Amino acid sequence: MSNHDFTNQRIFPAARSIKEYEKLLRTNFEAIFLLNSHVSQLKSLMQMARSANKKIFLHADLVQGLKTDEYAAQFLCQEIKPAGIISTRKNVVLTAKKNSIIAIQRLFLLDSIALESSYKLLETTKPDYIEVLPGVMPHIITEVYERTQIPIIAGGLIREKQEVLNAIEAGAIGVTTSRQDLWDI
Fold this sequence. Notes:
Elements: E1 11-15, H1 18-25, E2 31-34, E3 37-38, H2 42-51, E4 55-59, E5 63-64, H3 70-80, E6 84-87, H4 90-98, E7 102-108, H5 112-125, E8 129-133, H6 138-148, E9 152-155, H7 161-169, E10 174-177
Parallel strand pairs: 1-2, 1-10, 2-4, 3-5, 4-6, 6-7, 7-8, 8-9, 9-10
Helix pairs in contact: 3-4
């Protein structure tokens, strides 16, 4: 996949509630990340997105009422059909790829051990994108991109406009954020 999946969008607003999600459907953002949802709401949420001409990237690990295993991933790909699926789990990312849905591997880079095991995971999953958390480590964003050549999205703990700019300058194609004050920059 290429950066063209997101056109020229650099801020990827992340909705933590249905209210925020509905608000984002009325914005100019093409790509929206949906954090918290419930399995019973997914079909109607996707219909709303299609009506609003939005691409939804669904955090599979944060869908209440859905176990994040291969069967759940199959259900999301075949029945819900978001533009992309975000997950920390190898089998979910691999299932999304198999179903031609944009696969985003979410990585929590807490220390050197987590970073090294993430590199091993990425060799297996080969996702379309990597979401690096926390996204406030420009040198790590640069390192992960140089080592993997997979486009990076920065997320987590990004609170200031300058942190958004630092992440993009370090090589991230964009930033996910649930902070509404950063949605407009």
